[in-house]
Amino acid sequence: MEGRYPDLRIRFRPGHVQVVQADVFFPNRRALITGATGLLGRAVYREFKDNNWRVLGCGYSRARPRFEYLNLLDTSAVKEFICEFKPHVIVHCAAERRPDIVENHPESATKLNVEASSNLAKVAAAAGAFLIYISSDYVFDGSNPPYRVDSVPNPLNLYGKTKLEGERVILQNSDNAAVLRVPVLYGDVEKLEESAVTIMFDKVQFSNKSANMDHWQQRFPTYVKDVASVCLQLTERKMQEPSLIKGIYQWSGNEQMTKYEMACAMADAFNLPSSHLRPITDEPVGATPRPWNPRLDCSKLEELGIGQRTPFRVAIRESLWPFLVEKKTRQTVFH
Ligand SMILES: NC(=O)c1ccc[n+]([C@@H]2O[C@H](COP(=O)([O-])OP(=O)(O)OC[C@H]3O[C@@H](n4cnc5c(N)ncnc54)[C@H](OP(=O)(O)O)[C@@H]3O)[C@@H](O)[C@H]2O)c1
């Protein structure tokens, strides 16, 4: 094990503190994160690592050098990987999450979002690992919010359908699994296009050009660090009370915003002008259909005392600061 995952060995550096990550210090605390190279997976990996879990993150095209390469479509590789690492929890973040790509590549998206999830659930169940499957508010049609965990799903697009089917196969193949539905995510992005929220920032900061912004779809932008904390809290509670945690959960930020309102809030957070932003109140046409307001009711987690919410203004500033072009003039204001 230590040969295969060298970052988990005990290292000694003369005159320095030991860097220690070994089973003897983290008994029963091994976590496997799929999609650890992605937006949410990176935050979940960090959250578990910072809280005394021995964590293994796996990725696909971006796996090396930081993470382990694991193609989730390779069923025997998945089995071998889990049998070797023996995780106590698996947080399954890997998915094809871009609705337009799913529409255009239905077969490969279904393989990853549904078939790979089904296989992972079977292997996790056989290994006795608690599995958290990250799902989406797009399982709902958004016409009659808010949506409770037991509200009837009705996905409008193929992405939502594959996530719903993913939920079904997870719960069917493991009685030691939880589904966690979340809405649109943002956080520390490698590039602005990585999140449907941060992607708007260049239109916000380059104010010499007017920009149309959707003002019809109602969203609840949610910070990945908050979701990561919820995954950790859910896992810790599961370890304390195994029979309590199972089934479907939902977590979401509580600030309702359209994309136009998010863009204005970004401008405000950096003291930038917003008069070039134009709200478009008509329902978008022609694109992949998306729900109007898929607001998630989070009371099931709140009643367990589980949750974390960072205000949008604070979290978006933290996330976008590296991408702010005019850093020098804004620096004195915020840092
Ligand atoms: N982002 C959102 O706004 C949002 C909203 C609601 C729900 N969700 C859900 O939240 C979860 C995380 O989303 P995200 O935004 O973090 O996604 P993301 O940034 O697009 O990351 C997707 C991850 O899947 C991995 N992956 C792709 N193909 C794979 C394969 N064949 N084998 C193994 N791994 C593979 C990618 O690895 P490489 O990059 O290394 O190839 C990457 O780590 C998903 O389940 C998504 O449906 C996301």
UniProtKB/TrEMBL annotation:
Function: Regulatory subunit of S-adenosylmethionine synthetase 2, an enzyme that catalyzes the formation of S-adenosylmethionine from methionine and ATP. Regulates MAT2A catalytic activity by changing its kinetic properties, increasing its affinity for L-methionine. Can bind NADP (in vitro).
Residues of the RmlD-like substrate binding domain: 30-323
Pathway(s) per entry: Amino-acid biosynthesis; S-adenosyl-L-methionine biosynthesis; S-adenosyl-L-methionine from L-methionine: step 1/1
Family affiliation: Belongs to the dTDP-4-dehydrorhamnose reductase family. MAT2B subfamily.
SUPFAM superfamilies noted in UniProt: NAD(P)-binding Rossmann-fold domains
Domain of life: Eukaryota
Protein name, as recorded: Methionine adenosyltransferase 2 subunit beta
Alphabetical UniProt keywords: One-carbon metabolism
Record has Transcription as a keyword: no
PANTHER family found in the cross-reference section: DTDP-4-DEHYDRORHAMNOSE REDUCTASE, METHIONINE ADENOSYLTRANSFERASE 2 SUBUNIT BETA
InterPro entries: dTDP_dehydrorham_reduct, NAD(P)-bd_dom_sf, RmlD-like-bd
Any matching Pfam family: RmlD_sub_bind
Subunit structure: Heterotrimer; composed of a catalytic MAT2A homodimer that binds one regulatory MAT2B chain. Heterohexamer; composed of a central, catalytic MAT2A homotetramer flanked on either side by a regulatory MAT2B chain. NADP binding increases the affinity for MAT2A.
